[in-house]
Amino acid sequence: MTTVTTMKSISYKNIASPKGFKATGIHCGLKHKKKDLALLVSDVPASVAGVFTTNVFQAAPLLVTKEVVQTTGKMQAIIVNSGNANSCTGKQGMADAYTMQQKTAEKLGINPNLVGVASTGVIGEIMKMEPLLEGIQKLYPIDELEGAMGFAQAIMTTDTVTKNTSYKTTIDGKEVIFAGTAKGSGMIEPNMATMLGFITTDANIESNHLQAALKSITDVTFNSITVDGDTSTNDMVVVMANGLAENNTLTPDHPEWESFVQTLHAVSQDLAKMIAKDGEGATKLIEVEVQGAATDEEARKVAKTVVGSPLVKTAIFGSDANWGRIIAAVGRSGAKFDPNEVKIKIGDANLVEKGEPIPFSEEDLFNYLKQHEVKITVELNQGDGQGLAWGCDLTYDYVQINATYRS
Amino acid sequence: MTTVTTMKSISYKNIASPKGFKATGIHCGLKHKKKDLALLVSDVPASVAGVFTTNVFQAAPLLVTKEVVQTTGKMQAIIVNSGNANSCTGKQGMADAYTMQQKTAEKLGINPNLVGVASTGVIGEIMKMEPLLEGIQKLYPIDELEGAMGFAQAIMTTDTVTKNTSYKTTIDGKEVIFAGTAKGSGMIEPNMATMLGFITTDANIESNHLQAALKSITDVTFNSITVDGDTSTNDMVVVMANGLAENNTLTPDHPEWESFVQTLHAVSQDLAKMIAKDGEGATKLIEVEVQGAATDEEARKVAKTVVGSPLVKTAIFGSDANWGRIIAAVGRSGAKFDPNEVKIKIGDANLVEKGEPIPFSEEDLFNYLKQHEVKITVELNQGDGQGLAWGCDLTYDYVQINATYRS
Fold it and tell me: Which of A357, A373, A396, B199 stands 20 to 30 A from A317 (CA)?
């Protein structure tokens, strides 16, 4: 991709900032105290694109939203709850997800097939519909920061911080705003793990092209993070583009198509990294860059294997420059390469060259590893393939959170 | 396999019990205090079979042992150290491994190409050869329990217990003894992870048939355990059969061939389960049985995915019957099945049938999960494939051990 100068990161916008979007989040009673019900609405039906979990078990709300995305290509609102995943809940679960869709549509006075549904939380428990339906009646989305923050909080499970990002770009001379919010933070691994991502933009684009743009960047963003290797039954990223920026309709032939895709890429990558950094119990973001692989795909495979290795993750938690574990992970990744050509760096320190260890300052590296963002670089010297992956360290808190999740 | 009645588990034998085997283990100085150097010897050259790590990075000692196994098919002794893996140590590492082989051969007065070498410990550090070579001079293997226990202790890294098992069977009217010892306990995952296994028997068999027997049971034993998904650069399982039981040479046509294979299987499965149970920081052995898969291979894949899931492992550590995590792992395993046909049990309690949750007593299940051995059963209802996998829970101690391993 060539750099497009009009794209600009802006920190002060939110998912309700693109023209015509409103959001809110409240406590309805699925959780003890915290917010657990959220709504995102566009003034007009928006083109929609979505990517969904590859798990064979797919939660009821996910099936409902998939249906909206795949059949109409338009979405005007999405209702989201935390506290219960409505997954493996059989026919009752499907009925409940459709009821959520129906009641939200009635409340908003729109067609149910314009309403998506998302849920996150414990698997296998029937949804408490009474507080949820009462909650839907209490939702008043607004186009202000407060509404977007309420939404971001209400979709959280074990997340410790809300995750938001925004960008603007110019298309056909019109300012186009992009914003995204997401939640993690366990069961995160390739192919849409326990992750919910919502991206809004006022760009004007048809849903088939929006879907193509989202698909083209999913592998290098949302599918390039891992927290624990587990893939959830619920997770999805949905992009809504309502066209209110009034640019000419975007297609791959549009002169500013790349600008659109790059901005979507930037929003997605920001959200993905925030999810990785806020992995359950995490204290550090780990970025692994692989260069010189046979293909980009192989590079990403190596990067993900390294960033997902429990032994690498615990070593980094302990600020221990135990690069042998990086080597071991590279070696079992399934990628083909000559072990005698491998180069490994942590931060700026060269640790391995031509497959052999080289001396380094333990003290310098210890100080580097104590930081909250750690970079590992692997050079395979096999070709031009490159890739990035993000993850987090494995800590006492991960065990604590997950040994007691339902309690 | 049909049951062979002559096979009998015997607890009082050890790797020095089959006729003509001797063992020892001492402290030579690679570790601070603990034993770190071990030797296993047969009075006569033994037929040998081995399976080795699939990691692209292969440690120097492993390459030396592989050469012995693959070129001569005979081994008379194996020298093993802990404290240093001699992996990613380049040309110096290869030279050091050959020196270990050579000096052990000299000490025993045998041909170097009858001597295997194995190492386990930190990757990427050059071996301290001085204490090691002095140590080799101090090795006096004996055919008594003390020698075998010294060996079992000296190969340990973060293992908390020695791992030993023994069986006897009868072939051609002769008593044949089998014994095995192994070490784990981190970097344990498919395909020969950080695991060293040594099996001795006085059976009479050629190395090509011994290799075939070992290969036939590796996938369902050593390759069916996982501690943390990491695969080491060093690990191997070696079987030595010295023929001193004086049975007629075993081949697949021998009427008691199955008896031989089953006994080897039993030794291997015992060692594999002991390694899983003593995984780093583990408090519980988890056994996952998958039935009704399309193939046995697919069944094992599902079983290994479940037993390797960090979320399942932490839930079991917390005695939490969070079966949704089992469902999620089954669903991402890559196996093909209908989610509406799945049945899941923990212990004897049915939790999911036809893909839907069924009520169970939380209290009973909590009490069951507090035990040290936990069984999960998954029925896919797709075919006749079945498989087992073993692993352990994920605990605070795993993090503690691995955040500080090199310190």
Answer: A357
Q: Read off the CATH number of the domain in which B98 is found.
A: 3.60.70.12
With respect to residue B148, please indicate whether it lies within any of the assigned structural domains. Answer: yes
Task: Express each pLDDT in A17-58 by its tens digit.
Answer: 999 999 999 999 999 999 999 999 999 999 999 999 888 888
| Residue A143 belongs to some domain of the structure | yes
Tell me if A340 is assigned to a ligand binding site.
Answer: no
Residues A144 and A108 in one domain: yes
Which structural domain range is residue B358 located in?
285-403
Q: Tokens for B86?
A: 């001699």
- Least Cα separation, residue A394 to chain B (angstroms): 7
Q: How far apart are CA A289 and CA A297, in angstroms?
A: 13
User: How many alpha carbons lie under 13 Å from residue A209 in its C-beta half-sphere?
Assistant: 15
Searching chain B, which residue's CA lies closest to the CA of residue A407? B320
Same domain, residue pair A271 and A289: no
B368 part of a folded domain = yes
Helices (H), A109-252: 129-137, 145-154, 207-218
Give tens-digit pLDDT for A167-210: 999 999 999 999 999 998 665 443 334 689 999 999 999 999 99
Residue ranges of chain B with pLDDT lower than 70? 1-5, 185-194, 227-231, 405-407
Q: Are B257 and B249 in contact (CB under 8 A)?
A: no
State residue B206 phi and psi, 5-degree precision.
-80, 155
CA dihedral over A286, B282, B38, B33, signed as positive or negative = positive
Q: Based on the domain organization, do A245 and A291 belong to the same domain?
A: no
Q: Cis ω on the peptide bond leading into residue B232 (within 30° of 0)?
A: no
Looking at beta carbons, which residues of chain B come within 8 Å of A320? 403-407
Q: Do B356 and A89 touch (CB under 8 A)?
A: yes
**pLDDT tens string B285-315:** 999 999 999 999 999 999 999 998 888 999 9
Residue A338 to residue A332: CA distance in whole angstroms: 13
Query: Could you give the dihedral angle defined by the CA atoms of residues A106, A108, A113 and A116, in that order, rounded to the nearest 10 degrees?
Result: -110
A345 and A223 together in one domain = no
In this structure, the answer to whether residues A258 and A307 fall within a common structural domain is: no
Assign residue B90 a region (left: φ > 0; alpha: ψ between -120 and 50; beta: otherwise). left
Sign of CA dihedral B119, B125, B126, B127: negative
A1 located within any domain? no
Question: Does one domain contain both A270 and A313?
Answer: no
Residues B114, B251, single domain; the answer is: yes
* Contacts A–B by Cβ distance under 8 A: 216
Per 3-state DSSP, chain B is made up of helix, strand and coil in percentages (nearest 5) of 35, 30, 40
